[in-house]
């Protein structure tokens, strides 16, 4: 009986992996409001958010691995609910990210289900330095992405850059946002790809 139960849990865990694969195809729809025709995917956003989170954690004295983990799962629920822009959230009553996550991992290995639910709960409700940094990483990634869209000619992205930047809290995120605003896309190529 144990072997059957383990096989089912393994299948449930793999099912969760496959579900998250949808994030590689799902676009970040908020940018459509700014006129961006082909925005980045949710997975692309989450990956760079995790990298930014680890770096911000190093700069702020937080645990980089924990912050990267929080950032990795911060939008994983969007495989089920999509990327709902803030304006759309005014009109919807949706399940919490914790409820969506619980459904996503319901058939996964119990240790996986418990672990993923704990990470999402902490991201949504925690008040540690790691949670603060993870939230700033999400916002800083949006600022940088918006600056990239601005440089590609999407002028409406400026409002997103400004409003998101205003929500940054850590000194490191604010400093990096400032540095990003003065760096054209081609600059890092000239400077760092020598």
UniProtKB/TrEMBL annotation:
Cited SMART domains: HDc
InterPro entries: HD/PDEase_dom (IPR003607), HD_domain (IPR006674), YfbR/HDDC2 (IPR039356)
Keywords recorded for this protein, A-Z: Hydrolase, Metal-binding
Superkingdom, natural source: Bacteria
Any Pfam family matching the protein: HD_3
Domain HD/PDEase: 38-152
GO cellular component, one term: cytoplasm
Gene3D superfamilies the record matches: Hypothetical protein af1432
The enzyme's E.C. designation: 3.1.3.89
Annotated GO MF terms: 5'-deoxynucleotidase activity; metal ion binding
Reactions catalysed according to its record: a 2'-deoxyribonucleoside 5'-phosphate + H2O = a 2'-deoxyribonucleoside + phosphate
Cofactors required: Co(2+); Mn(2+)
Assembly notes: Homodimer.
Protein name: 5'-deoxynucleotidase
Native source organism of the sequence: Peterkaempfera bronchialis
